[in-house]
Design a protein that fits this description.
Layout (H helix, E strand, L loop, with lengths): L2 H11 L5 H20 L4 E3 L3 E8 L2 E4 L6 E4 L2 E8 L1 H19 L1
Antiparallel strand pairs: 1-2, 2-5, 3-4
Length: 103
Amino acid sequence: MTKSELMAKMANKQPHLLQKDVELAVNSVIELLTSTLASGERIEIRGFGGFSVNQRQARVGRNPKTGDAVQVPSRYMLHFKPGLDLREKVNASRTVLKTIKDV
């Protein structure tokens, strides 16, 4: 789902809101999430999951083409851990899809 598709679905579910209001709300939430993670803080949305920033240490990697050793610098990575409700819903929907495909 793209950002524009998300805004369209939200506008359809809330017809009393103007498209501009939905766009402002989505953009505000995304900006708040981005700035919070950029400052190193953790975000937890109950039932959905948690976002955190982890640092990967510098390491020696390999160039797959030549096999030469390459120094890979340390960097920060975004980590998402889904919440229990999200995991259960995804697993339940995948089980139903698999059952339908098997029939």
